[in-house]
Amino acid sequence: MAGYTLILAILILGGIIATLGDRIGTKVGKARLSVFNLRPRDTATVVTIATGGLISASTLGILLLLSGQLRDGLFRLESIRSELANSQEQKRQVETELNAAKDEQQKARASLQEINQSLVQAVRKQAETQALLQTVENKFQQADAELQKASQQEADLRDRIQSLNAEQENLQNESEQLRNEKERIATELDSISRDREILKQRVGESEQRLAEIEKQRTALSTEIASLESVREQLLISLEALRKGNVAIFADQILSIGVVRPDLSASELRQASTQLLQQAERNARELLDFLPEQAPKEPVVQITDAQFEGLLNRLRDGKSYVVRILSAGNFLKRETKIAIAADVTLNRQIFAAGTEIATLKFTPDLSPQALAAKIEQLFLLVSFRARQEGVLANPITGKVGNFPPEALNDLFKLVSTLTAPYEIRAIAKEDIFPASSLSVELVIRQNGVEIGRFG
């Protein structure tokens, strides 16, 4: 409302001053006054200009006098602009701080929420703790009651301890006596333990020696049985020799062959027939028939049941060594020879280089003792080979042979040795049941091979 009043006053004042100026100018013009030696017309113009300036000055003065805002806008405009810029800068800072404060407020609210959750958990934990505390108090009361009871028991135990102390002194005395006795017994036990170890060692040595002796006894028993069988065969042969010339001895091999695995029934029958035919030819040759006396019928006798039994033993698809043996002693020109078929699984018994037997020798042996021990080594080789399945000579009971010239060379070498040595018999080649056992004798001294013969 004050602004409108000010504008109205200015308009009224301007109109009054304009009217006065016009009248003054008119009077000056009519009076044709001259100021500062000017023409009247120019003087009127100057008066009019002065009147207009006075109007403007009075208007401005009134405005400045009545409006403080106008005075500030006219004289303090730059400072106000500066203050306004500062205010805007401060406003931006305040807004930035306000945004930061809002972020902090959000974080504070999140923290407050976490604190509230922790507070809830703490309240729950406090409740649990209160319940636990109540339980502990109850247990404490129970423990206190038990403590009182234990105190009474402690008093009873003190009395009991006093009585036990006296017993302990007695027991300590007895313990000292027992300790001395224990030391004495421990000394005796140590002595007994040493004697026991010595006896145990001697028993072990005795058992080992006994086992070796048992093995040697078994081997000798087997060898004796074999020799007894040979002796009986020789007696039978001698009896036959007294009556006439023996052409074929008992268990003499008439034919031998290896049946290949996986033969068909017809091939198996053909192979068995060929073995019997070979036995027939060998038997006729051994019986030494005169040309005009040779029988037309087969001399080797085998029944159909025996032949079928032989085929049944060979039908499992494996490889076998089949020997056709004489079933007894037969004289020359006999026309009926009974036979037996020996079937042995054909397998590798010794690989080439396998050690079969070993004997240790001393350099002080006489030639006779050395020969006897070499013969013992050959007996061991023959025994083990027969045990493993090598087929022995039915007449001699032995397997394989050894060249005499190689044996002479061996005797020459060992006669020059002055330290103990050992002789090993090793397989010269792969040995199968029907193979001829071919061995090499290897002489070793102090673990070093010094000769190989065979």
Question: Main attributes?
Answer:
single chain; alpha+beta; elongated; transmembrane; 8 helices; 454 residues; four-stranded mixed sheet; four-stranded antiparallel sheet; 10 strands; DUF3084
Question: Quick summary of this structure?
Answer:
The protein contains eight helices and ten strands. It has helices at residues 2-31, 40-66, 68-75, 77-243, 265-287, 304-313, 367-388, 404-414; strands at residues 246-248, 253-259, 300-301, 320-326, 330-331, 337-345, 355-361, 421-427, 439-445, 448-453.
What does this structure look like?
The protein has 454 residues and is an alpha+beta fold. Among the domains are: 2-75, no CATH class; 249-346, no CATH class; 348-454. 66% of the residues lie in helices and 13% in strands. It has 8 helices and 10 strands. It has helices at residues 2-31, 40-66, 68-75, 77-243, 265-287, 304-313, 367-388, 404-414, and strands spanning 246-248, 253-259, 300-301, 320-326, 330-331, 337-345, 355-361, 421-427, 439-445, 448-453. Strands 2-4-6-3 form a 4-stranded mixed beta sheet, with helices on one face. A hairpin with a 2-residue loop joins strand 9 and strand 10 (448-453). The radius of gyration is 72 Å and the shape is elongated. It starts with a helix and ends with a strand. The mean pLDDT is 77. The chain crosses the membrane at residues 45-66. Residues 77-230 form a coiled coil. Keywords: Coiled coil, Membrane, Transmembrane, Transmembrane helix. This is DUF3084 domain-containing protein.
